[in-house]
Amino acid sequence: MKIIVLVKQVPGTDSVKLDPVTGVMVRTGKDTIINPLDENALAEAIRIKNTYPDVKITAVSMGPISAMKAIKEAIAMGADDGVLVSGREFAGSDTIATAKVIAAAIKKTGDFDMILCGERATDGETGQTAAMIAHYLGVPAQTYVSALEVLEDGVIVKRTVESGFERVQVTFPVLVSVNKDISDTGFPTLDGKLKAKKVDVPMLGNAELGFDKSELGLTGSPTRVVKIFSPKLSRDTIMVKANATMQPIDELLSFLVQKDVL
Amino acid sequence: MSMYVNCSIAEAKNLSEFKGVFILGEQRDGKIQAVTFELLTWGRGIADDLGCELACVLLGDEIENLDEVILRGADKVFFIQDPIFKNFLTQPYSNAITRLVNEEKPEVIIAGATTTGRTVMPLVAAKTNTGLTADCTELTIDPDTKLLLQTRPAIGGNIMATIKTPDTRPQMATVRPRSAKQSPVDTSRTGQIIVKNYAGATTMTVEKFLEFIIDTTQAVSIEEADVIIAGGKGMKNAAGFKLVEELADLMGAAVGATRDAVELGWSTYPHQIGLSGKTVSPKLIIAMGIAGKIQFLAGMQTSDVIVAINKDPEAQIFKVADFGIVGDVFEVVPMLIETVKKMKAKA
Ligand SMILES: Cc1cc2nc3c(=O)[nH]c(=O)nc-3n(C[C@H](O)[C@H](O)[C@H](O)COP(=O)(O)OP(=O)(O)OC[C@H]3O[C@@H](n4cnc5c(N)ncnc54)[C@H](O)[C@@H]3O)c2cc1C
Ligand SMILES: Cc1cc2nc3c(=O)[nH]c(=O)nc-3n(C[C@H](O)[C@H](O)[C@H](O)COP(=O)(O)OP(=O)(O)OC[C@H]3O[C@@H](n4cnc5c(N)ncnc54)[C@H](O)[C@@H]3O)c2cc1C
Questions:
Q1: DSSP of B147-181
Q2: Domain residue spans in chain B?
Q3: Residue A233: which of B181, B294, B266, B142 has the closest Cα?
Q4: Do B269 and A261 touch (CB under 8 A)?
Q5: From the candidates A16, A158, A223, A234, which should be mutated to test the interface with B, based on the most B CB atoms within 10 A?
Q6: Best exposed site among A79, A149, B40, B81 by fewest CB in 10 Å?
Q7: Which CATH number fits domain B216-346: 3.40.50.1220, 3.90.1640.10, 3.40.1190.20, 3.60.110.10?
Q8: Which CATH number is B15-203 given?
Q9: What ipTM describes this predicted complex?
Q10: What is the CATH number of the domain that holds A122?
């Protein structure tokens, strides 16, 4: 069985710069991590590899050349190999343009049974890319998955939805996006680290993927960021100190009544 | 092995062909879900600004009270009816909606940023080759260009971005649940219910729905709750966290938790608020024993009224709070519970 795990490299801290004109994220390449939910997806792939014979895991990332670090980390944690999709023409892609390119890169790596990825990345946070990738590959997408059971010819997924869970059975090939409940994240192993050093991770650019330039980057993106601004964060806080009397509680309750939320 | 019906409307360059606003309603067990009525509020406003019709799209087998959608603001209801639509399955849902969109050519489509909306809308956007903006908190029509301006938080709520879809149609967005009030019933309203029966390829799928399991701990799901009582590591242990549940129960509120509280096993992941959990925007949230780290704030800072109880006067949670009590949760919360009990007894 071949599993593709998508790993997006995201900023590790809260300090992200945006180009005020184009609204495109500017990254320094320093202090980056694998998107946390992608690590959960990777851990689930590794769990499957440890349970069933002949499972191969390929980590795929699209991003600047520095995203190679994310793939090497994935290999250190247990992926067998990886593919980096990188090129200046891809910069500024929205989810449609991103998904087209990632899907094309996955196709290049040959047949697969399952794609595992996080339900949402912590930077762009759209949670849209995975389903779009599934569309461009012509496979079904199962989203918000918190448990997965591997069958002979497919999987049964448990989706965490509003007010409960849905169980759905689907045949391979399939894309599954996961939430945190799927698997505890793992750690790099010594063997893995050695392997990560040795493995040659191929890079795919548009020379290999062959898109028309109009389909890529900002030009290939139907959405346009037209304005970026900071949300109003701080509020005028009424502060009271607890003092063993009922007074702070009464003040709170009359505040809530006045705000019409009780 | 693709079962998808690939019907791109990219060829239809004539943008003016696209008219009208669609909202994507939701049902479970044939009952129309509250998010549908919130979407009617969004959709009605936009349709009025554009001077066009508002249609609600619903998929299902049998659906109760379809009329209510009209009384609450829709001019038309497209009811796509087939037993396969009883439960959400990505292939038949996205195929059917795409087919309707290609037939009707709406200018704008809005869905809830629910697990369903966030799954089916990307598929429909990709199939129709147009843009989609995620999780919007504000939608307006640009008075000059008549384009839909879609505003959304990103990067853990640290920035807001306004996005438009200038060159393709429909313009598609998901909106955060609870970011609009439910549209009220107006019994004088009239409209049309159009039933669509799509058979064949549209309803075919490799997916099989097995079952829906209600999560009883989510009696009130946190994304839909008006009031959330949330607890963090300051609740000390599982027994302490029970105070959070007790107050929530008393107030008919949902229980929220920080990542630390979930990891310690005091609550479960469906209750986690924050960057790697749920994003909530209730009318009232009471944060108890919560530090207010940025990853937590990312999931709740757009709430209407924020109350914080923390023994550390410097705790960051107070920066986003409207009302803060500096004190020990084990003193303050039991008093609060007693007072609410008394209020309820009187009422
Ligand atoms: C402020 C801001 C707002 C934006 N709003 C929108 C918008 O509303 N609509 C829109 O279409 N675009 C939007 N974008 C662009 C969007 O963020 C990018 O297209 C980005 O590539 C998709 O990232 P995401 O964080 O949204 O991914 P998500 O869709 O949240 O990611 C889900 C999963 O897909 C996989 N994945 C995603 N990207 C990659 C990758 N590069 N490599 C490997 N795996 C990946 C990962 O497994 C990830 O866990 C916005 C960008 C910014 C800066
Ligand atoms: C990538 C990433 C994603 C993350 N995602 C999330 C997320 O989705 N959600 C999330 O919550 N966190 C998330 N975190 C973790 C986050 O950074 C914090 O660690 C977490 O929110 C802290 O939880 P807490 O406030 O319960 O605990 P603490 O930080 O330990 O705070 C406890 C608070 O309780 C107060 N307190 C203690 N005792 C009492 C008492 N007796 N009475 C009153 N007050 C008391 C203390 O003063 C303190 O302020 C994420 C972190 C990372 C790196």
A1: PEEEEEEETTTTEEEEEE--SSSSEEEEE-TTSSP
A2: 15-203, 216-346
A3: B294
A4: no
A5: A223
A6: A149
A7: 3.40.50.1220
A8: 3.40.50.620
A9: 0.90
A10: 3.40.50.620
CB count, 10 Å around CB of B65? 10
CA dihedral A190, A191, A197, A201 (to 10 degrees): -130
Averaged pLDDT for residues B50-67:
97
Count of structural domains within chain A: 1
Q: Which of A182, A209, A196 is nearest to A78 (CA)?
A: A196
Does residue A35 line the site of ligand 1, with CB under 6 A?
Answer: yes
Residues with Cβ within 6 A of ligand 2?
A 36, 122; B 232-234, 258-261, 272-277, 289-291, 293, 295-296, 299, 310-312, 315, 328-330
Q: What is the pLDDT of residues A145-193, one digit of tens each?
A: 999 999 999 999 999 998 899 999 999 999 999 999 999 999 999 999 9
Q: Letter for the amino acid at B346? A: K
Domains B15-203 and B216-346 share a fold: yes
Q: Which two tokens stand for residue B298?
A: 């990312």
Amino acid in position B270: P
Helix (H, G, I), strand (E, B) or coil at B323: strand
